[in-house]
């Protein structure tokens, strides 16, 4: 019998593993998860998507607008909830790999770090497990920082926790050892789980970003 399942998606891990550099960023998460999880084993009741607001860059000033359109698209899918972390941008000085014989051996760079998504995901996973909101959880990530919360849910609460890995070429060994199962995300799955070009919500009709074709 299919287990009542909640899916927890690390948005940036999914993006860099499966979507960056592809024309498949207009991803329907419900269709995507349904392709990856067999319905005879998983009754998907909720999908939780964890991400952070991106900022405009000199080489990509429209990045925030594209993200807002995508979050709006996700809002048309009732079982998907989005939870936002934040970015921390700071100046740091780092050593050069091959410093010149004379001159500075370090360089100052702007370092952007996404904060909160993994903690938010772990918190929701643990709270939902203790509140008995699911019979199985599936985590879409390859982040080994999630080993401990997955272990708690599996071994202390006796629940199924699977992992869908967006980075099949370098699976996190600790995650694979801790989860009930770990499966690579199939190439081509995102291609077959796209939203329609046009969508409608309470604010009207909107369209997939033009540079996502």
Structure in words:
There is one protein chain. This protein has 213 residues and is an alpha/beta fold. It has 6 helices and 10 strands. The chain has a single domain (3-96, 104-212), classed as Rossmann fold. A 6-stranded parallel beta sheet has the order 3-2-1-6-7-8, with helices on both faces. A two-stranded antiparallel ribbon has the order 4-5. It has a two-stranded antiparallel ribbon with strand order 9-10.
Topology:
Layout: E1 3-10, H1 11-19, H2 29-36, E2 42-51, H3 63-74, E3 80-84, E4 86-95, E5 106-115, H4 117-130, E6 136-140, H5 147-156, E7 160-165, H6 173-178, E8 181-184, E9 198-201, E10 204-207
Parallel strand pairs: 1-2, 1-6, 2-3, 6-7, 7-8
Antiparallel strand pairs: 4-5, 9-10
Helix pairs in contact: 4-5
Short descriptors:
single chain, 213 residues, alpha/beta, Rossmann fold, six-stranded parallel sheet, two-stranded antiparallel ribbon, 28% helix
């Amino acid at each position: 019998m299919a287990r009542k399942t909640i899916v927890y998606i690390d948005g940036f891990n999914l993006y860099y593993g499966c979507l960056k550099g592809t024309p498949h960023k207009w991803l329907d998460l419900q269709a995507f998860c349904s392709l990856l999880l067999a319905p005879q084993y998983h009754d998907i009741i909720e999908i939780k998507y964890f991400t952070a607001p991106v900022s405009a860059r000199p080489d990509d000033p429209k990045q925030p607008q594209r993200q807002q359109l995508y979050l709006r698209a996700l809002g048309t899918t009732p079982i998907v909830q989005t939870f936002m972390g934040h970015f921390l941008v700071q100046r740091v000085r780092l050593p050069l790999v091959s410093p010149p014989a004379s001159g500075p051996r370090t360089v100052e760079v702007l370092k952007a770090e996404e904060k909160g998504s993994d903690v938010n995901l772990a918190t929701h996973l643990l709270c939902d497990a203790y509140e008995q909101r699911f019979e199985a959880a599936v985590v879409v990530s390859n982040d080994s920082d999630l080993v401990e919360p997955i272990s708690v849910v599996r071994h202390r609460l006796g629940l199924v926790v699977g992992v869908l890995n967006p980075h099949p070429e370098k699976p996190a060994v600790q995650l694979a050892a801790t989860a009930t199962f770990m499966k690579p995300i199939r190439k081509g799955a995102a291609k077959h789980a796209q939203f329609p070009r046009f969508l409608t919500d309470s604010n009207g009709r909107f369209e997939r970003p033009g540079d996502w074709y």
